[in-house]
Design goal:
It is built from 15 helices and ten strands. The protein is α/β, with parallel strands linked by helices and 379 residues long.
């Protein structure tokens, strides 16, 4: 028997215009508050409309330009330790993860690397400042996960997490209006990351009826949103609302059941290349779906048949291939063409560290190499 535990936000606001809850939340409980965001958000009409209400309630603003490194987290912690009592994050996954890390490590005495999974030597505690998370992309689900992803591409070459149940943001504000105007490649690549979270959690060896139903709910939302995701007007608005829901449910699913071989490879690739994480997952997802139909694992085969019926009300001898063709036919952007390069040495480095994580099947080095061959130009 596998027991699952769901740890979610204490408050979740969902729907068009829900960002207007932020000034009220900050005013009702006045605390020295630090905002993390991207530079594009500060140039947006959303910030122009919100600034006069929120700016007076802040003690500072930090810009997160990319996936934060351990050194950047340490610099922010040193600057704000003892000066803030709450953190707000408005942005994509990198912004939310950086804010989660600073909120937590401002309450810890050692530097980031000491607590980081894979390389650290000290267990992180649950001490953290309260955090309000406002995603402006629909993909990572960071607004409801227990982990903050940190990346060091320069020195130790690692992409790993700070992780504790108390790191789930207290408040999430899911306003699909914030997805309007996002570039098509951001919308599509983030969405396919959300789908990968849901599918891998659905097929996880740690899964059960509870986690799989959560994942199915998320994949149904994804299917409703994927075909019109990049459209303007009311259809696009409804699609982006569904994708924001899919992303949040993906965060819940991965927190309960974990991820699989796609992220087992993508996490290592992300430690050495600047490729968009969602696109990496999407490129690996397509060959992975081919492997699913070829693999005889009985439980996995049953789960894929059940998923195919849940999503499309159909049965198929090759349910994963049907899913793959649907994803490609309905994509608002052809992200899998124009293969990006990986050197032979980079592939060897990735495969020496990658793993199948919580997959029902332990995928061999040869199978993982084949996935990379299909997704990238190696040479």
């Amino acid at each position: 028997m596998i027991t699952s535990q769901l740890i979610a936000n204490r408050q979740t606001f969902f729907g068009s215009g829900s960002l207007q809850q932020l000034p009220r939340l900050l005013t009702e409980t006045p605390l020295p508050t630090l905002l993390f965001c991207g530079s594009s958000f500060l140039r947006s009409d959303t910030w122009k409309n919100l600034e006069h209400q929120v700016q007076p309630l802040l003690v500072g603003i930090e810009i997160v330009p990319h996936e934060a490194s351990p050194g950047e987290i340490d610099s922010w912690v040193a600057r704000w330790r003892g000066k803030i009592q709450r953190v707000v994050a408005i942005g994509g996954g990198s912004v939310l993860d950086a804010a989660k890390a600073v909120a937590a490590l401002s309450q810890h005495p050692l530097n980031t690397l000491r607590y980081l999974e894979k390389v650290g030597d000290t267990t992180v505690s649950g001490a953290t400042l309260p955090l309000i998370a406002v995603p402006t992309t629909a993909g990572t689900g960071s607004e409801v996960t227990q982990n903050a992803v940190i990346t060091d591409k320069a020195e130790i070459k690692v992409k790993a997490s700070l992780r504790h149940p108390e790191f789930v943001p207290q408040v999430a504000i899911l306003d699909p209006d914030l997805l309007r105007g996002a570039p098509d490649n951001v919308l599509v690549c983030c969405a396919v990351d959300a789908f990968t979270h849901l599918l891998e959690a659905y097929l996880s060896s740690k899964g059960n009826a509870f986690t799989r139903q959560t994942a199915i709910s998320g994949m149904l939302a994804f299917v409703r949103g994927w075909p019109q995701l990049t459209e303007s007007g009311s259809q696009g608005d409804r699609a982006r609302e569904q994708m924001m829901l899919a992303s949040w449910l993906g965060g819940q699913s991965l927190s309960m059941a974990g991820l699989g071989v796609i992220h087992g490879i993508a996490g290592e690739l992300g430690a050495i290349k600047d490729y968009h994480h969602g696109e990496v997952c999407g490129r690996l997802l397509l060959p992975f779906l081919t492997l699913l139909d070829e693999n005889p694992h009985p439980q996995q085969a049953v789960l894929m048949q059940e998923l195919n019926f849940a999503l499309f009300q159909q049965t198929s001898e090759q349910p994963a291939e049907q899913l793959k063709q649907w994803l490609m036919a309905n994509a608002g952007l052809v992200f899998w063409q124009d293969l990006q390069p990986l050197s032979v040495d980079e592939v060897d480095w990735i495969l020496s560290r990658s793993n199948s994580k919580n997959s029902l099947v332990s995928y061999s080095r040869e199978q993982q190499h084949w996935m990379l061959e299909q997704a990238y130009r190696i040479g």
